Amino acid sequence: MTRLRPSWVAGANDPETDFPLNNLPYGVFSTKALSPRCGVAIGDRILDVARAEAAGLTGTRDLVQAAKWNPLMAAGPEVWAGFRARIGALLAEGSPEREAVAPLLVPMADAALHLPFDVAEYTDFYAGKQHAINVGTMFRGPENALPPNWLHIPIGYNGRASTVVVSGTDIRRPVGQTKAKEAAAPSFGPSQRLDIELEMGAIVGTPSTMGQPVTVAEARAMIFGYVLLNDWSARDLQAWEYQPLGPFQAKAFATSISPWIVTAAALAPFAAEGPEREVPLLRYLVEDTPGLYDIALSVEMNGQTISRTNMRELYYSPAQQLTHHASSGCAMRTGDLLGTGTISGPAPDSYGSLLEMTWGGQTPIRVGAETRAFIEDGDTLTLRGHAQGDGFRVGFGACSGRILPAPDFFKETT
Amino acid sequence: MTRLRPSWVAGANDPETDFPLNNLPYGVFSTKALSPRCGVAIGDRILDVARAEAAGLTGTRDLVQAAKWNPLMAAGPEVWAGFRARIGALLAEGSPEREAVAPLLVPMADAALHLPFDVAEYTDFYAGKQHAINVGTMFRGPENALPPNWLHIPIGYNGRASTVVVSGTDIRRPVGQTKAKEAAAPSFGPSQRLDIELEMGAIVGTPSTMGQPVTVAEARAMIFGYVLLNDWSARDLQAWEYQPLGPFQAKAFATSISPWIVTAAALAPFAAEGPEREVPLLRYLVEDTPGLYDIALSVEMNGQTISRTNMRELYYSPAQQLTHHASSGCAMRTGDLLGTGTISGPAPDSYGSLLEMTWGGQTPIRVGAETRAFIEDGDTLTLRGHAQGDGFRVGFGACSGRILPAPDFFKETT
């Protein structure tokens, strides 16, 4: 395991910070004085890389002048590596550029964080086996829990990119059609079973060509970085709508991501094997190197931790998911966001959704002095995640969202 | 029914042209001399509206200078109406601007046509009842053909925008996982059951806000125009992958659209009622005015017509689909493309897919001197559509694509 790389920046050598020099994640920030721009988190500061590039400090030109990271993402792995090495050198202990760089550091406490990249399209996978078994048992019964294709295909569906929002954005409770089992007809109103899904998101940097599948190795090289991802879900809408074409409005109202893109390079020391294959994979999906990362993940509701799990619980890696995504000839683009699917561990206190933790709402969980089956208006849900190094951590920052009451819209229920 | 509006442009008053003055559809074209730009079809000519705007002839500024229609689409219904009225005046018989406009007309035969707008996201609905019954019978048996939600919800799923291509683009046969019923495990290779879906696509002009549903009347006003849409489908991939989260790679490899956006204004005289409701709709979906259009549609394979149907066969209108799409609070954006779902009539010669025409491949159809169960390499599939006026028609042009052999990629099948 690698050791802490010391930095001259305040807070960056603190073993509890998410943002040591080993991390250098990419976000978009603004302050009262500065319009939204690209920044790199270091300790409790943000390096204004737009100004750093303009000052000739980054070795790049016009790659981080937009208030999104897409231009750098599209530039490919060699440019990513050069940029990361250069930012690392600027911020390392003993850097000769310290005096030029210091004025470009902004206190994180003064900054507002924005969506770090333009989301081209959003796809959500279903690659956590315990989650698939849990949900399958509840929706279809234990005998049909894991669909027959599940051990062969990284099952996924296209989600909605227009409602991917950055952590801190309030989420309005969705309205929609639901049908109680005993009811003769559906009704329309606010979701009563609003839930989270604890996921990670892989972000595509370099694109692929329509009509040309990619190998797992090519897919791995296309991935720019990762975020935490909360795939908010309205379980009552989902149960009524999802047959035969999959989730639609139950997932379309919001997806929250953490504000910092943690690069594949920063996570490389924490690469981890997935679980054993239960059946052999088709050759196009075989991955020869460890495709997951050892990332500790947790869910908080209103400040109380209600679940802890790890990215290693996934059955398919992001590179395998991306390979399958492109396998038909589907063109992948810079800014595509691929949710891993809910990451549930083996026991209820490691499940990644309230649906699972409360077993469909039947066994509410304790949250401080209160209990919850599903999310109530005013509740704040927060995901956290980090990889643990030797005296340092590579963290994601929080992925947080508070639920606002449903909009007034056709209030009657039938 | 409205009558032909006479134009001074060659061919525009021909009763067989798709592009009389009544139509004025929007495309993007290039010639040897002209880079890609916005154009309006009129008879067998294209009006170079980029140059027309620059010359002060259109009454707009910087709305059609990009080689996409998105800026005008985002400008809203009042601007759309003003622009259409102005273009109509320029091209009408007796126009005082004829001498200024004539040099801006390009022969359609000299032009290459491009995708007319940037597709923000692509959603595909399932709003044809005969199609849903046919496919449901084949995939799930006659007793479960129409899902219980179908008469209440315009069922839809998110598709893939990165592979929406303009008519004339060759389509590579997709590869993917399939599993024969008797096989112990799936295999990987070229699709053997490649199909079309005859659809129309509605294009969102003005956006909606995240967290705010829209009414059917608001949704109707948001729709900029329509295209023909072929939702290419790999039935063998689809059958194996689609449970439980819906179609994914079976549809992700390509979607073709016709090159001309026919505006809602041009189609208004052809508005038509949909079928009777079999059960009452929830109030948010009730549409008080005719939401469909009387548009004759056909499918050709290698120049032979194999099916004829009409947009009136849809059970849900595009405005109802858009309303449902936004109902959860899902933000809709300029450039969103909403496929209607396959439009099948009551009999096999009016079905909108080969899957239905050949009943799952069991009864191949005659195509000239040959027969087909599904599409073979080299086959060209073409959709056509038009609304019939009194001595004129409002047509879409062709939506055509030829199938190329599958890519070389992991040729072994297991």
From TrEMBL, chains A, B:
Question: Which molecular function GO terms apply here?
Answer: fumarylacetoacetase activity; metal ion binding
Q: Which pathway is this protein engaged in?
A: Amino-acid degradation; L-phenylalanine degradation; acetoacetate and fumarate from L-phenylalanine: step 6/6
Q: Which cofactor does it need?
A: Mg(2+); Ca(2+)
What GO terms in the biological process aspect are recorded for it? homogentisate catabolic process; L-phenylalanine catabolic process; L-tyrosine catabolic process
- Which residues catalyse the reaction? H131 (proton acceptor)
SUPFAM superfamilies, alphabetically? FAH, Fumarylacetoacetate hydrolase, FAH, N-terminal domain
Q: Where is the Fumarylacetoacetase-like C-terminal domain?
A: 123-385
Q: Which residues bind Mg(2+)?
A: D231, K251, T255
Q: Where is the Fumarylacetoacetase N-terminal domain?
A: 22-116
- What does the record give as EC number? 3.7.1.2
Q: Which residues does UniProt assign to the signal peptide?
A: none
- Indicate yes or no for the key word Calcium: yes
Specify which residues bind substrate according to the UniProt entry for this protein. Y126, R140, Q238, Y242, T342
Q: Which residues bind Ca(2+)?
A: D124, E197, E199, D231
Which domain of life does this protein belong to? Bacteria
Q: What is this protein's record name?
A: fumarylacetoacetase
Keyword annotations from UniProtKB, A to Z: Calcium, Hydrolase, Magnesium, Metal-binding, Phenylalanine catabolism, Tyrosine catabolism
Task: Please verify whether the record's keywords include Metal-binding.
Answer: yes
Class of enzymatic activity (EC top level)? hydrolase
